[in-house]
Amino acid sequence: MTKQVAHPMMKLQRKVSSLVESNIIKPEDRIGKIALLLGNDWPHWKSELLDFDFSPQDQIRELLLVENWDED
Prior knowledge:
The protein is mainly α. The chain has a domain of 44 residues. It is built from 4 helices and no strands.
């Protein structure tokens, strides 16, 4: 049985979900708002998000709705 490694975007998605659950950000906030919370990691995650056709203007809700991060 092989253990499947979680896609890095799942890690970001879980982190963002936790921030929403903690009422630090809202689902209707723009993805760009998490830049302040991710600090020095933001340029990396922004690049990843752009690769998946997200923009900083998109709502956080849209990021949380993704169920599969396959890069096919």
